[in-house]
Amino acid sequence: MRQRRYPPRMADTPSQDAARPTVLLPEAEVQRIVADLAAQIAPVIDDETVAAVLLTGGLWFAADLTRALSRIGRNVRFDALWLASYGDEQSSRGRIDVYADFQRPIAGRRVLIVDDVFDTGLSLAEAVRIAKEKGASEVLTVVFAKKPWPLPRAPEPDFVGWEAPNRFLVGYGLDHAGALRGLPDVCALD
């Protein structure tokens, strides 16, 4: 199978730097990781569990993960939290903005927080705090990718799909100023 090659830049995004995305995880490997995570998670949740995606980047992973869970007989409820710590920058601003809270009641339910990448840990920590504050009986966390970080982070994710390199990642929901999220592979843009 030939590895996908991407153009050096998209014509309608002049602010995007000229780096060509380098494929780190091809689409087939992404799907294998998601299926493996579903197999790990299914035994510890039930159909009353609320899978809560962290928007916007986690949407691609959450859609694939909930379908993978369904294929093995686990049909979770679905919700979202819209949090942001990056804006259009390549590094976290060090604070979390909450744009949208849970849409359904989670009191007394197990909640599975689903996010694309774990780097600073700020978004995941805020999502766990909000879920506990809303009365979740248990909060579990899953991230597709976990990047190395020089300082301890709390909480660490309960489930991790891929130990990612310390590179600027795009594709599969990960973006550069809103662009390149739709790439089916996980790529580095550096």
**For the terminal residues, how far apart are their CA atoms?**
24 Å
Number of helical regions: 3
Shape: globular
CATH class equals: Alpha Beta
Strand content: 25-35%
Number of strands: 9
- How many domains make up the coordinates? 1
Determine the structural class based on helices, strands and strand pairing.
alpha/beta
How do the strands of the widest beta sheet line up side by side? 4-3-2-5-6-7
Give the biggest beta sheet: 6 strands, mixed
Query: Low-confidence spans: pLDDT under 50, at least 5 residues?
Result: 8-17
Q: What would CATH call the architecture?
A: 3-Layer(aba) Sandwich
Order of helices and strands: EHEHEEEHEEEE
Q: What is the CATH topology assignment? A: Rossmann fold
Helix proportion range: 10-25%
Rg calc: 16 Å
Mean pLDDT: 87
Secondary structure elements and their pairing?
Elements: E1 22-25, H1 27-41, E2 50-55, H2 59-71, E3 77-84, E4 97-100, E5 110-118, H3 122-133, E6 138-146, E7 159-163, E8 169-170, E9 186-188
Parallel strand pairs: 2-3, 2-5, 5-6, 6-7
Antiparallel strand pairs: 1-9, 3-4, 8-9
Summarize the structure.
The chain is of the alpha/beta class and 190 residues long.
How would you describe this structure to a colleague?
The chain has 190 residues and is of the alpha/beta class. The chain has one domain (22-86, 98-188): 3-Layer(aba) Sandwich (Rossmann fold), CATH 3.40.50. The protein has 3 helices and 9 strands. The chain has helices spanning 27-41, 59-71, 122-133, and strands at residues 22-25, 50-55, 77-84, 97-100, 110-118, 138-146, 159-163, 169-170, 186-188. The strands form 2 sheets. The chain has a 6-stranded mixed beta sheet with strand order 4-3-2-5-6-7, with helices on both faces. Helix 3 links the parallel strand 5 and strand 6 (138-146). Helix 1 crosses helix 2. The longest helix has 15 residues, at 27-41. The radius of gyration is 16 Å and the shape is globular. It starts with 21 loop residues before the first strand and ends with a strand.
